[in-house]
């Protein structure tokens, strides 16, 4: 399927989330006969808006009309086990992701970014740098995908010479078929969402690796060489695309390495074809909500992307220096009673919690918990023992966390996030940090991690000095 061949096609879009709605409107605008099919309910205003865009709508279930189609677009939140998905597969109907569909119509160069952690920060930083570079030559950069704005919603406005920075989850990559980024990035792969993949890291990694499955000569893959899984997969063998590893360690053969980005004495160095150039010092951009070892990795990846896109080092340095991090990722909220309060609501897995604990110096009151995803907390036990004075557990998993960290730190269960904030206020001393890094999903109490982080900040900002 291509963008030129959708006119007249009968299409169903399964799931009326943001990306599903955007894909339906895009395809209808390109001449397809589209039915948006939602298992839940839709508001009358939304139904009317979709119909005005030429999209048919059904809610409360998936009818025969949703199954009798030429192809179907499946929203990322719809699991492979869903009855509609199974029915479509049994009929041999081709299933696509919204990302795949948007790519058919994209005239901009595409930077695809995925990984378990760091993809939002890296995508935001790359977008900001590309936008600054584009403003110098009359082009634009677009931040789309898992970052919150559907690719399909913006692709019609993209022009040749623009840059589409597409953040990608494994769910979004699962049903990509021809999607081909000019530059792809793999930040890392650690256990997450394994329920979707029957507990298999191999299946989870395979979904991530789809980001580069269609890349060819002239394209670039950028990957974290310090991630053993990625290094094992991409470090050797033959691939048609250019590979650029990034690392906190200087490679032994750095002087003769063909491509790579690494850290040397606090300075980011780009190596290519036997030559080197120094781009930026970490002490020039690590600050406040953008600090810690994991953010050095994000900066290395962004520098590697910038090099692949031909963006000048001066623009890169300025972009790094101006970057303030992203909302809900180790976001500085305020200083209260001599303690710093940090919102890390985006930490929905144990590895993200570990990164936050590593980035914070001094004594910590840790607020954690939510909906457990089969987490293994053992990797963070040493850090918690070393740094955490009090662990306040919340949400569905509060008793589970209390058991997992028993004997490692002082633990107190809180009935609500508001209650945890009050307890943290009473406990935190001068020079301490109150770190809200849940390590769990938000769906037990909130719609998403953004709502959870906003609520935390409201609670903190309502506290009196």
Automatic annotation (TrEMBL):
Provide the binding site for ATP.
115-121
Listed pathway(s): Cell wall biogenesis; peptidoglycan biosynthesis
What SUPFAM superfamilies does the record point to? MurCD N-terminal domain, MurD-like peptide ligases, catalytic domain, MurD-like peptide ligases, peptide-binding domain
Molecular function (Gene Ontology), one example? ATP binding
| Subcellular location field | Cytoplasm
Any matching Pfam family: MurD_N
- For this entry, list what GO says about its biological process: cell division; cell wall organization; peptidoglycan biosynthetic process; regulation of cell shape
InterPro entries reported for this sequence:
Mur-like_cat_sf (IPR036565), Mur_ligase_C (IPR004101), Mur_ligase_C_dom_sf (IPR036615), Mur_ligase_cen (IPR013221), MurD (IPR005762)
- Asked whether the UniProt record includes Ligase among its keywords, one would answer yes
Keyword Cell division on entry: yes
Which residues belong to any copy of the Mur ligase C-terminal domain? Answer: 328-438
Q: Which family does it belong to?
A: Belongs to the MurCDEF family.
| Described function | Cell wall formation. Catalyzes the addition of glutamate to the nucleotide precursor UDP-N-acetylmuramoyl-L-alanine (UMA).
Designated name of the protein: UDP-N-acetylmuramoylalanine--D-glutamate ligase
Organism listed in the record: Chlorobium phaeovibrioides
Q: What is the lineage of its organism?
A: Bacteria, Pseudomonadati, Chlorobiota, Chlorobiia, Chlorobiales
What gene codes for this chain?
murD
